[in-house]
Amino acid sequence: MEKTLYSANGEPVAYISDGLTKAIYLWDGHPVAYLYDYHVYGFNGLHLGWFIDDIMYDADGKRIGFTSTSCPVPVYKETGKAKKYPAAKAGPRYEPPPLPDLGFDYSTEDLEEFLRKGQATL
Question: What is the value of pTM for the model shown?
Fold first, then answer.
């Protein structure tokens, strides 16, 4: 079952596919990242952050994305998702940095922009 990722204000921004690759798609259907264990990697190979206990953390250990069960505010109703674009072949994964102290602070970065940093260029 796909998991929707919400911003800190409860808006649906992306979702994790239920396929083998656990690809992360933006709401507009573009594949931008995937899960590898608890790491979030972009299709371009960049390590973006971590996904632990249904919370996505940025490189600084700040909370940036949530599922409906972990979101700190009521979530907005999901609108229809766009058709999925084909996912690019994942690039070589960069070595992940050490896991920072995970806190309760929110990232100042926008979730969609954060995930777009992993989008592969064609």
Answer: 0.93
